[in-house]
Design brief:
By secondary structure, this protein is of the alpha/beta class. 34% of the residues lie in helices and 22% in strands. The structure holds 2-deoxy-2-amino glucitol-6-phosphate.
Length: 608
């Protein structure tokens, strides 16, 4: 949610800033801006409503400086506009600030600063920061001291980068609840809110901790706390491939990421299957078998698709380990004063590892003495660090706003956890082997499904202009229906509703008409007959049905059928979901939507 980039070094900062912003645009894309400075050069600023391409077009050739910051925004305070775009400046035009996060006491600070003479030119909470920094600057005051003093007055979350036209030899960055990472170059330094902006320039990075600031100069950096205590940070190496940050010949990141799923799943499984004991090795859990045997309940928390992946995970844990498990939106959990039980294992799910509601839920559990594991894609992210242990997905960076490969890898990680739990409890070696073999078969079977791309594109084009869609599934199929509906509405803006197939006749059957087709998940499992009866009820009301099935139902029951390969019943939901991703993608393309950057959304939601 919003992206920050910064550069200091011997080169002109502007090309890096614009390219970095383009790489971060998936995090926010309603306005963008840059500010550069240099020795005796004053401050140059350009900002505009719209995309980074609009900003690049507005930046003149003479817009140069050796020190610069940039921002791409997802509006929280104030509409997307030129005035509300970052960077924000103080009244003398000396300081420029870019900010991710929310300043909760902005209104009070604004009143106070206005009384002291500051003139505000935007509706943003961020602008108070720059006026505060200006208020704390003065003869001989180092920029880092002014920033530190300003942050002491601020309540809220932030990742910030600040430049000062009178001290152009440095950039000051700070983090509290919104990530900032430094990139170490040769006699030049970078900073960003996400490594995606840095990987073309350096693989050596330093992640700031919450409550930490850094002074970044061309030849190095110094970190310290808000109380001015020095800290020590060792650089780490980013191991994600540079290619992951390009569409590599695909029309969109989304379709690329859908096609990457076989290899993402291979990486999630890599080194974790134990064929001898028919179980999974998950060293990162930091819990031995005895501790796991004491677990009586599993509570999974996450937001959006992460929550739906958690629902699939809960089903796997209940079936394979026979431990009661459920999933709840982290955004609800954190506000309802949850009862934290000693023998409950809490599992937080997040692709980005930054989602604020999920992080706050983890903190709430830990504050009450609970144990939390993370199922996270981004190594070293805030949620990963806040948890007691967990499973990294290793799915590779996910750029498209809609989650696909991370979703699939999350469910695979839950299958591993359920297998591990199950084999510690009562899952037989034979059933363990069945699941191990099923997991091994997944990458090949996902490949088979994504090869049906053309067939699914034709189906999607046929349904894309409908008024809305119903998605139904029973038990294991219900979370698949929810994720399928989520994907469709998120990127195509077609209204989609998910229901347990069993509940249709208790209300939503009234909606069924030729204009509201149904996507039905119809695996060959113990509930097949029940599902076929539901299809009959829909067809009897002239509803069109697209069945996702292992065996084609009678043509009277399904208008269209899309066949998927069969795995073990517990793992089948993973495969049933893949055609729904392709369906949503092609419906969005048919409707000419901005597939990777759907309206009103951003990749990671780091605000409440
Ligand atoms: C998924 O397609 C959505 N963009 C969204 O629901 C997402 O899954 C949610 O915001 C959680 O993100 P996280 O996994 O990064 O925590």
């Amino acid at each position: 949610m919003c992206g920050i980039v910064a550069y200091i070094g011997p080169k002109d900062a502007t090309p890096f800033l614009l390219e970095g912003l383009q790489r971060l645009e998936y995090r926010g894309y309603d306005s963008a801006g840059v500010a550069v400075t240099g020795k005796g050069a004053g401050l140059k600023v350009r900002k505009t409503k719209g995309r980074v391409a609009d900003l690049a077009a507005a930046v003149p050739a003479r817009f140069k400086g050796s020190t610069g910051i940039g921002h791409t925004r997802w509006a929280t305070h104030g509409e997307p506009s030129d005035a509300n775009a970052h960077p924000h400046l103080d009244n003398a035009g000396r300081f420029a600030v870019v900010h991710n996060g929310i300043i909760e006491n902005a209104d009070q600070l604004r009143v106070r600063l206005t009384a002291e003479g500051a003139v505000f030119s935007s509706e943003t909470d961020t602008e108070v920061l720059v006026h505060l920094i200006a208020a704390h600057s003065g003869e001989g005051v180092e920029l880092e001291e002014a920033v530190r003093a300003a942050l002491k007055l601020v309540v809220g979350t932030y990742g910030i980068a600040v430049v000062d036209a009178e001290q152009p030899d440095r950039i000051v960055v700070a983090r509290n609840g919104s990530p900032i990472v430094l990139g170490l170059g040769e006699k030049e330094m970078f900073a960003a809110s996400d490594v995606a902006a840095l990987v073309r320039y350096t693989r050596q990075v330093v992640h700031l901790e919450d409550g930490e600031l850094a002074v970044v100069r061309a030849d190095g950096f110094r970190t310290f706390t808000e109380d001015a205590r020095p800290t020590t940070r060792q650089p780490s190496t980013v191991d994600w491939e540079i290619d992951s940050y390009d569409t590599a010949g695909h029309a969109h990141f989304l379709i690329k990421e859908i096609h990457e799923q076989p290899s993402a799943v291979e990486r999630t499984l890599s080194g974790r299957l134990d064929e001898r004991f028919a179980t999974a090795h998950l060293g990162g859990l930091n819990m031995d078998a005895r501790e796991l045997r004491d677990i009586r309940r599993v509570k999974i928390i996450g937001c959006g698709s992460a929550y739906y992946a958690g629902q699939m995970g809960a089903q796997l844990i209940e079936e394979l380990a026979r431990i009661p498990a459920d999933s709840e939106p982290a955004s609800e959990f954190r506000y309802r004063n949850p009862v934290i039980e000693a023998d409950t294992l809490y599992v937080a799910v997040s692709q980005s590892g930054e989602t604020y509601d999920t992080l706050a839920a983890v903190q709430e559990v830990k504050r009450k003495g609970g144990r939390v594991l993370g199922v996270v894609n981004t190594v070293g992210s805030a949620i990963a660090r806040a948890c007691d242990g967990g499973i990294y997905l290793h799915a590779g960076p996910e750029i498209s706003v809609a989650s696909t490969k991370a979703f699939t890898s999350t469910v695979v990680a839950f299958a591993l956890l359920a297998l591990h739990f199950g084999r510690i409890n009562d899952l037989s070696p034979a059933d363990g082997r069945r699941i191990v073999e099923g997991l091994k078969a997944l990458p090949g079977q996902i490949r088979e499904i994504v090869e049906k791309d053309k067939e699914i594109a034709e189906l999607a084009a046929e349904y894309a202009d409908c008024e809305g869609m119903m998605f139904i599934g029973r038990v294991r199929g219900y979370p698949v229906a929810r994720e399928g509906a989520q994907k469709l509405k998120e990127i195509s803006y077609v209204h989609a509703e998910a229901y347990p197939a069993s509940e249709l006749k208790h209300g939503p059957l009234a909606l069924i008409s030729p204009e509201l087709p149904t996507v039905a998940l119809v695996p060959d499992d113990e509930l097949l007959d029940k599902n076929l009866t539901t299809l009959g009820e829909i067809r009897a009301r002239a509803g069109r049905v697209l069945a996702i099935a292992h065996t084609a139902p009678d043509p009277k029951l399904a208008t269209h059928t899309l066949l998927v390969p069969r795995n073990e019943p517990e793992l089948d939901p993973l495969l049933l979901n893949i055609p729904l991703q392709l369906f949503a993608y092609h419906a969005a393309v048919a409707l000419q939507r901005d597939v990777d950057k759907p309206r009103n959304l951003a990749k990671s939601v780091t605000v409440e």
